[in-house]
Amino acid sequence: MACLPGEEVTLDRCRFCAHSTAFCVKGEWITSPARAYCVVSRAEKDVDLLAVEEVECDDTDGEGYRSIMNIIS
Asked: Is 53 helix (H, G, I), strand (E, B) or coil?
């Protein structure tokens, strides 16, 4: 997946990015595990990364990948 122009990011990294909000699997949007950590919401379903068709991202400033590990540690 293209995170920023010229910056490819794997879905595994998207799963841990503070900007990912949801993953689309077979037309159903599933809350991102990263979002669950960042906003204290619940991610009730596991994300099958092999089936992901699209990632919803709220990176409006063009920051790119930002790991949640800095936020939760």
From this structure: strand
